[in-house]
Design goal:
By secondary structure, this protein is mainly alpha-helical. The protein has one domain. The chain is built from three helices and two strands, in the order βααβα. It has a two-stranded antiparallel ribbon. The longest helix is centred in the last third of the chain and has 34 residues. It is extended and about 75 Å long.
């Protein structure tokens, strides 16, 4: 008979391992999140009503450190997608600047 154990959740560990650092880390990340949110609210359309709450802030505030595998894969996918998009955009912009400076039309 084979082992039929299926894992549905992952235990989050890392930054919040020390209980004395949970509150300061929560406050730092909350401050960064609120500053980013304030900046984004200044440039967004008021008709968009989708709330976005970072999972890490939720985990710092509560004692539950479990995340489903689907949520973990989704977060990793979007993190990598946006990171690759930003890096690709920066690469195209730098190549455009290189062409404009080093190989002018005239």
């Amino acid at each position: 008979m084979e082992n039929q154990t299926v894992l549905y959740t992952l235990v989050l560990s890392g930054l919040s391992d020390l209980p004395s650092l949970q509150l300061p880390l929560f406050l730092v990340f909350l401050l960064v999140y609120l500053m980013t949110l304030t900046g984004n609210l200044l440039i967004t359309d008021s008709h968009l009503q989708t709330p976005i709450h970072p999972r890490m802030l939720f985990d710092f505030h509560t004692q539950e450190r479990l995340i489903s595998i689907q949520a973990c894969i989704t977060q990793i996918y979007f993190f990598l997608f946006f990171a690759v998009s930003a890096i690709s955009l920066l690469a195209v912009m730098s190549y455009d600047r290189y062409v404009a400076i080093c190989r002018p039309l005239g």
